[in-house]
């Protein structure tokens, strides 16, 4: 689906991390061999990676104006533990915030947030309003007011529920 194309730049890392959990079926793919490699983590890192994932989800829900989906460690608290440095390219002077510690997942996420802040894209990464979904998506709508991961799936379901509520 075109409205599920991945987020730009480093936000794609965050989007794919958040979307390793399917809330409706509770299927969690974070611990698969592919994902351990993709996120640069080991089995031992899974509890902290899951904590980070849900803190991110709460921040993405907040971007869309929604309350957190549960009790989570505030994302800022986690990211404060990720050292970033300003790296400057000697050839053209271009500067970027990069992980100071070789880039474990937490630092890569922090760098991705910093990059998105500069690009003005951070608050466009949101989580779907539907309680059975909360899927991460990148809001490409002109006004930036999209509420669902997919109008065809969650948007249609929400409309149907409102319609039924009116009928009752
Ligand atoms: Zn959804």
TrEMBL record:
Signal peptide, first to last residue: none
Gene3D superfamilies linked to this entry: Jann2411-like domain
Any single Pfam family the record assigns to this protein: ABATE
InterPro entries, alphabetized: ABATE, ABATE_dom_sf, Znf_CGNR
Highest taxon, organism lineage: Bacteria
Occurrences of domain Zinc finger CGNR (ranges): 124-166
Protein name, as recorded: CGNR zinc finger domain-containing protein
Organism: Streptomyces andamanensis
């Amino acid at each position: 689906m075109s409205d599920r194309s991945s987020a730009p730049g480093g936000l794609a890392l965050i989007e794919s991390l958040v979307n390793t959990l399917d809330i409706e079926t509770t299927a969690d793919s974070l611990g698969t061999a592919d994902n351990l490699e993709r996120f640069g983590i080991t089995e031992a890192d899974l509890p902290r990676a899951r904590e980070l994932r849900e803190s991110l989800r709460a921040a993405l829900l907040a971007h869309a104006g929604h309350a957190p989906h549960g009790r989570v460690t505030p994302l800022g608290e986690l990211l404060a533990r990720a050292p970033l440095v300003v790296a400057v390219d000697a050839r053209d002077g271009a500067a970027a915030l990069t992980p100071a510690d070789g880039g474990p997942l937490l630092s890569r996420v922090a760098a991705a947030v910093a990059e998105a802040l500069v690009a003005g894209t951070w608050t466009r990464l949101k989580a779907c309003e539907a309680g059975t979904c909360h899927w991460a998506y990148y809001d490409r709508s002109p006004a930036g007011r999209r509420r669902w991961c997919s109008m065809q799936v969650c948007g249609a379901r929400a409309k149907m529920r409102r319609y039924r509520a009116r009928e009752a």
